[in-house]
Write a structure and sequence with these properties.
The protein is of the alpha/beta class and 338 residues long. Helices cover 52% and strands 7% of the residues. It has helices at residues 16-23, 37-43, 53-64, 67-71, 77-85, 91-103, 122-128, 141-150, 158-178, 189-194, 196-207, 229-232, 258-274, 287-311, 317-337; strands at residues 6-10, 29-30, 110-114, 134-138, 184-188.
Length: 338
């Protein structure tokens, strides 16, 4: 019987996968690939719905069709569905059944979950799992933005990347201010790179586990379970499964133009300063014309995404209604944040 899981969250490209790799070096801790469970629960609208038998089964059917679930290599969907629904009276039970399936690969006593996007569902997770603990990973937003822009599967959208980090950092800040330190731990990515033994020791203390030297093994030498090979073969996982390169910590300083850096810092200044990152080009020149140019680009990307969503709607009436609800939720959320 699995105990209450812990969660690793943060803005995408902040180092959550690196932390996962370190923790998996512990003899008693297992953090599987991203489940994106609560992310899909939120997007599908079920998070706030009554956990009736029909709603639970409908969500499980939807979740089994997601790319995140396929990458977990759980097996035949009809068999997995039966396991996920076994004894489930709410969405938390389904999630615990999912973790149980994932843990069958290694059979460790302590399990965690790492999905950056679960930061958006942190309040629900904390209320649903009364004894759970959350590790929030924070990384310099300027480095995160550059990492996102280099990502092959993300659009080259400077404003959107800056907005995502700013809003995620604000969520982390809110969590830290509203929750006691026994439930939420802030991990700085830069500290993890420079002094992994000290930081991992703090993480183990937070989780109530003993630190083990095996956690310090090079990330490129840590064995990747063959069961999850497809997940770790994704192009965006390359740097998190290779040897740590400390020279990359401040590489962003040489990758921005002066006007780009000035604009990014203006957009993220309050959260950068809150987390102790010093702004170095906030008062630079040339940012206003760039803002106009990037705003046009941002609107273009949003328009294209909206059109793609419309074109991909299914003719099935039930799926059509769900998709319309998602589009309405997405547009209202963007208006709220912008």
């Amino acid at each position: 019987m699995l105990g209450t899981p812990f969660f690793i969250m943060g803005s995408p490209r902040s180092g959550t996968t690196l932390l996962e790799r370190f923790l998996n070096g512990h003899s008693q801790i297992f953090v599987p690939p991203e489940t994106a469970y609560f992310h899909h629960l939120r997007l599908s609208g079920f998070m706030q719905s009554e956990p009736t038998k029909q709603n639970i089964e409908t969500f499980v059917n939807e979740y089994l069709d997601t790319r995140a679930c396929h990458l977990l290599n759980l097996g035949y969907s009809h068999v997995v569905k039966g396991v996920l629904l076994e004894g489930a009276t709410n969405y938390q039970d389904v999630f615990m059944n999912l973790l149980g399936l994932l843990n069958n690969v290694c059979g460790k006593s302590r399990i965690g979950e790492k999905t950056p996007h679960h930061l958006h569902s942190a309040e629900y997770i904390l209320s649903w799992f009364q004894d759970t603990k959350i590790i929030c990973v924070i990384r310099d937003g300027r480095a995160v933005v550059k990492s996102r822009l280099h990502h092959p599967n993300w659009e080259h959208n400077l404003l959107a990347s800056a907005y995502v980090w700013r809003n995620d950092a604000l969520r982390v800040r809110t969590l830290l201010e509203q929750q006691c330190e026994e439930r939420v731990y802030l991990l700085r990515y830069e500290r993890l790179l420079v002094n992994p033994e000290s930081v991992l020791g703090e993480v183990c203390d937070f989780l109530g586990e003993k630190f083990e030297l095996s956690m310090l093994g090079s990330t490129d030498q840590k064995e990747i379970p063959a069961h999850y090979a497809e997940y770790y073969r994704q192009s965006w996982m390359n740097k998190s499964t290779t040897e740590i390169d400390l020279s990359r910590t401040d590489a962003w300083r040489n990758e921005y133009s002066s006007c780009e850096l000035s604009l990014v810092e203006r957009l993220m200044a309050s959260e950068l300063e809150y987390f102790g990152y010093e702004c170095c080009a906030r008062n630079g020149y040339g940012w206003l014309p760039l803002l106009i140019k990037e705003s046009v680009r941002h609107l273009w990307f949003r328009s294209c995404r909206y059109v793609r969503n419309i074109c991909s709607l299914s003719f099935n009436s039930d799926k059509h209604a769900v998709a319309k609800g998602r589009l309405f939720w997405w547009s209202s959320r963007r208006k709220k944040h912008h």
